[in-house]
Design a protein that fits this description.
- By secondary structure, the protein is α/β, with parallel strands linked by helices.
- It has eleven helices and ten strands.
- Strands 8-7-6-5-4-3-10-9 form an eight-stranded parallel beta sheet. Strands 1-2 form a two-stranded antiparallel sheet.
- 42% of the residues lie in helices and 16% in strands.
- The protein starts with a helix and ends with a helix.
- It has one domain: TIM Barrel (Alpha-Beta Barrel), CATH 3.20.20.
Length: 289
């Protein structure tokens, strides 16, 4: 376990409120989409997604990450105006019905939906494109003054797996994040979270190589590293199972990520992620006995 990062506290400025985390945080996935790989079509009515949002919070999610379009490999994105309308409606309902201190993240890669969602109540922008799909995204994030999840990928979701070729994956990611962090900080973005993009323009071998050496990213950068591997293909393909049967595998790999220094977990199942964090904390504390 990477002691220098595991319990290293971090904070996010969300709507002028400083939210502090003294241990890894849990981001619960709220898919309001018809085609997400795991729960697409399950939470598409207001009653259904509001109920699931409450369930995620009850299960221990610190943050809810809301998306209205799937970004899985092979997916086709919505037009920004359509996505903005859908996100605004969802965000307004969540903000009006959930506790006031609920932290809401919006999963989008276009500036127009991002701005509309923040206006409707979102606190964080989670962009799987790393600013590559919309040249206005970085400037928009800076103007909105919200935390930003900077992800690594290549190409649109419909073509990204064709671009999964690297001379040195870890070195390429370090270079990628360094360049984009410099741009973001020059624009005035204050809080950045790094997401290495498991499954995005990466083969299964790449995913496991990245997980094995995740500590290199966690120690190279001071920004918290977010790991989003919940029920993904890298798990259910390796186990010859399905996304619905991949919860145990998800917990195993989340534990491995925590041991390498991950400070945020993006998951479908917050309770199991919380348990992994708690047990890893006991491993860390054992050195002090």
């Amino acid at each position: 376990m990477n002691k220098s990062t595991f319990f290293s506290p971090f904070s996010l400025n969300c709507r002028k409120n400083i939210i502090s985390y003294d241990r890894p945080s849990v981001m619960g996935i709220l898919n309001v989409t018809p085609d997400s790989f795991f729960d697409g079509g399950t939470h598409t009515t207001p009653e259904a997604y509001l109920s699931h949002a409450r369930h995620l919070l009850d299960e221990g999610a610190d943050i809810l990450d809301v998306g209205v379009v799937s970004s899985r490999p092979g997916a086709h994105l919505l037009e920004p105006d359509v996505e903005a309308q859908r996100l605004s409606a969802v965000m307004r309902l969540l903000r009006s019905e959930l506790p006031d201190d609920t932290i809401l993240s919006v999963d989008t890669c276009y500036s127009r939906p991002a701005a509309a969602a923040v206006e409707a109540g979102a606190d964080i922008i989670n962009d799987i494109s790393g600013g590559q799909f919309d040249p206005q995204m970085f400037a928009t994030v800076a103007s909105l003054r919200v935390p930003y999840v900077l992800s690594h990928t290549r190409g649109l979701p419909s073509q990204m797996q064709q671009l999964a070729h690297y001379d040195d994956l870890l070195r390429d990611l370090q270079h990628y994040f360094s360049e984009k962090l410099d741009t973001l900080y020059r624009l005035g973005v204050a809080d950045v979270i790094l997401d290495p993009g498991f499954g995005f323009a990466k083969t299964q071998q790449h995913n496991y190589l990245l997980l094995r050496h995740l500590d290199q990213l966690c120690t190279t950068f001071t920004e918290p590293v977010l790991v989003g591997i919940s029920r993904k293909r890298m798990i259910y393909n390796a186990l010859d199972t399905t996304p619905q049967q991949a919860l145990n595998g998800t917990t195993v790999l989340n534990t491995a990520a925590l041991m390498q220094g991950a400070r945020m977990l993006r998951v479908h199942d917050p309770r199991q992620a919380r348990e992994a964090i708690t047990l890893c904390s006991h491993i860390l504390a054992a050195d002090d006995v």
